[in-house]
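Hi there, hope your week has been kind to you so far. Thanks so much in advance, here it is.
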Amino acid sequence: MASATDTTRAEGLRAVARSRIARIIFLWNFVGLGFLVIGVLLLTEMRAGLTDAQFRNLRTQGELITNLLIETGTVQGDPYPYIHEPAVRDVLRRLLPPIAEGARPGAAGPRVRVYASDGRLIADTDVIYDRLEESPLTASESGNIGQRIEDAARQVEYLRLTPWRPTITQQQEFDRALAGEISRGERLNEKGERVVTVTLPLRRVQAVLGAVTVESADVERILVAERASMIPFVLGATIAIFLSSLLLALFIALPIERLAAAADSLRLTGATRLSLPDVSKRKDEIGALGHSIEQMTGALADRIDANQRFAADVSHEIKNPLASIQSAVASARAATTPEQQSQMLAIVAQDVQRLDRLITDIARASRIEAETALGDQGQVDLGGLLFELTRAYATPPGEKAHAEILFKGAKPEGAFVIGQAGPLGQVFRNLIDNARSFSPEGGMVTVSASVARTKEGQVVRAMVEDEGPGIPAENLETVFERFYTQRPKGTAFGGNSGLGLSIARQIVTAHQGRIYAQNIEKGGNPRAGARLVVELPLASAPKS
């Protein structure tokens, strides 16, 4: 059970792999996914790299500033060293000049603050220069001051309700610096900006006199740059998804919609054939579907035409005996002697028998057509079927038959075909009955089967041969038409409906085979008998 399920799954996966539409869908969807994955990976690496670079840069600047402050801003007192606060502020003022007017926003240097060991702020570069960032309002903005105030209030409220959690507090950084460690962190400053900070101890010999904090608000700029760099990846994924959707719409949705509309039009207009050449010529599953629908509607149209012709032929064939019966009844009524009446009644009985035979054969033809169309097909041992069928026709001991039915040669092996045993048996019963009716008294009908090779491939070739008068060359194809009869002299009129060979061809065609007639040449006689040949595609023998 498990192996069968695994086999079914494997076949389904192979079918998906062979599907062109499935490959297109998978390709474009995974292209879009790939854009997003690559973008996320690159942005993650970029953010981490830029943040680390910012920390290293601040640490380097902090170490330089701290070393300079130790040399020029501290004094070796007696007995302990101390910080010379005016010198510290002067060093910072000279080391970090104020931002030039009109410079690019974010181009200012880092903010530096110096704390004493007791936590008192000694110097702050923002306080030293009284730095105030401003931007002039445009005419449109100046006329909407109230709206700008409301937007700012909403932003403050949002920040208050969704606070950003810092990695380390300013007090923790200061405590670690007093312990002689260099610490780093991210937090929000008093302006609500996200900043990165590095705090270094201000040490003279072994004494920690205070701490130097270097911070930069360039994190916002980094985040904006990251978002801007993400735009190409988002656009790439959007384009890929759009193309995928467009392909699905153009190559799947629209053709299927056209097929549905064509089918509805076929139903509403009463037409019998569907033609969509632009769809059926495609080299994918949609094209195969359109081609199959065209073939299906064509087959249905052919069957409708065949049924109409069959109904017309049946009507014509039934009218003949009915007309004969009507004429015979009228003649019987006008007859003046019992002999004339008996003769007319015999004609009526003969025509009634002919009608009965005709209706029986028509019903049989309809039943066989339904069985062939609806029945399940399987492997049939055609050689064994013919061998057993011939044995069933064998004449019982002590009786004399009009013609002997014999199987020629040994029972063939490996002569398997795909089909239905019942209808195939009906084919050869019709052929044998037809051959026996044409055979002379004491004649012989031979049946044979063999595997042969043709242009279409290997086939099982079955033949039924008789010793009758043969078939006129111009009628070798006509004998398979419905209601065609050409019986030997002396055969009772109305004993055959002319449907036997027509039914046989119908069944053989439904089994993807062919049937044809030949004359047997023997001893210089070009019509020493008739041979009916059936060829069906060979199927592999069933596994035991």
User: Anything to note?
Assistant: The longest strand covers residues 443-454.
